[in-house]
Amino acid sequence: MCGTGPNTNVVSALRPLEELLGAYLTLLDNFATFLVTVALIYAVGRFVVLPALGLALELRGTERTLREGIERVATVGVVVAAVVAGLSLAGLDFVLERAAILVAAFTVALGFAAQNVVGNLVSGVFIVTDPTFNIGDWIRWNDKEGVIKDIRFRSTRVRTFDNEVIAVPNSELTANAVTNTVLNGRLRLTVPVRVDYGDDLDAVVRILSEVAADHPDVLERPEPIVRVTDLGETVEVVASLWIAEPDRITYGRIRSEYAREIVDRLEEAGVDLGRTGPQEIAGEIGVVSRSAATDESALDR
C-alpha cells in the first residue's frame, strides 16, 4: 500500500514558494533589463544625439530661441524613447497599453480643467517658432518693457530695466501688440526741445543738427532730421536720430550724451530753453459791466 511520505509533503508545501521566488526573480530580471535599456538609450541621446542636433541647428543658422525650443522637445523625445524601449525589451508592454488609456483620459480632463495652461502651451509653440521673438531682444507690451531672457512653452521670462525677472504668460504676448525694438538692427531716437518764441529757430535747428552729426554713435544714413513739431506756450523742436546698436543701455547713453551736449550748445548760443510756467504780463486789468460794454459797442458803430 502506497502512502504519502514526508518528502512529498515538503515538496508540495515548497512549490508555491518556488513559484513566487521564480516570479520575483523574473520581475527583477525585467526591471534590470528596463533600467539598463533606459540608461543606455538616454546616454546615447544625451551625449551623442542632442549635441549633434544642436551643432546641426547652429551650423544652419537657426535662431537661438527656435534652437533651444527644438532641443527641449528633443530632450523629452529621448526620455520617452528610452522609457518605451525599456518597457518593450523588458516584456512590460502591458504597461504601455494601460498608460495609453490613462494618457488619453488625462488629456481629455486636462483640456477641460486647464484651458489656460493649454492656451499658454500653444502660444509658446507659436512664440518659439516666430522669428520676431528671440532671446536677448528688447520688447515693449502693455506699458511694460524688458529684455527676453528665456522662452518656455508656458511662459516667457523677461528681465526689466529695474533688474527684475517676470514670467509673462505666453498667451498675454500672443494676444497683445508687442513691439520689438531691435528686430531691424537700428532704432530711431527722438529728443524734443522747447524754446521761446523770441529765440532764433534757425540757430536751434542748426545746433541740434550739428550735435547729431558730431556724435560718433549716430548714423549718417538715415540722416538726422530736426523739425518744428508744435506751437503752444513754447515752440517744440524735435530731433530724430538713428542708432545702430538698439539695446537699452546704448539707447539711454546716447540719448543722455546728446541731450547734455545740446543744452550746453544752446546756452552758449544764448537760446533760452522754453518754460511752460506762468508768464509775466504788463498792463492794466479792469472789470467792465455787460451794459457798459454794450453802450461802448453802440457808440463805436
Q: How can the largest sheet be summarized?
A: 5 strands, antiparallel
The proportion of residues in beta strands is: 15-25%
Low-confidence stretches: none
Q: What Rg do the Cα atoms give?
A: 38 Å
Question: Mean of residue pLDDT?
Answer: 79
Number of spatially distinct domains: 3
Q: Largest sheet, order of strands side by side?
A: 4-3-2-1-5
Secondary-structure-derived class: alpha+beta
Q: Percentage of helical residues?
A: 55-70%
Q: What is the CA–CA distance across the termini?
A: 157 Å
Morphology: rod-shaped
Tally of strands: 8
Total helical segments: 8
SSE run: HHHHEEEEHEEHEEHH
Descriptive overview:
The chain has 301 residues and is of the alpha+beta class. It has 3 domains: 13-113; 129-180, SH3 type barrels, CATH 2.30.30.60; 187-268, Alpha-Beta Plaits, CATH 3.30.70.100. Helix content is 56%, strand content 16%. The chain is built from 8 helices and 8 strands, in the order ααααββββαββαββαα. It has helices at 6-59, 64-89, 93-113, 115-129, 170-175, 201-214, 248-268, 290-300, and strands at residues 138-141, 144-151, 155-159, 165-169, 179-180, 187-195, 225-231, 235-243. The chain has a 5-stranded antiparallel β-sheet. It has a 3-stranded antiparallel β-sheet with strand order 6-8-7, covered by helices on one side. α1 (6-59) runs antiparallel to α2 (64-89) and α6 packs across α7. It is rod-shaped. The protein starts with 5 loop residues before the first helix and ends with a helix.
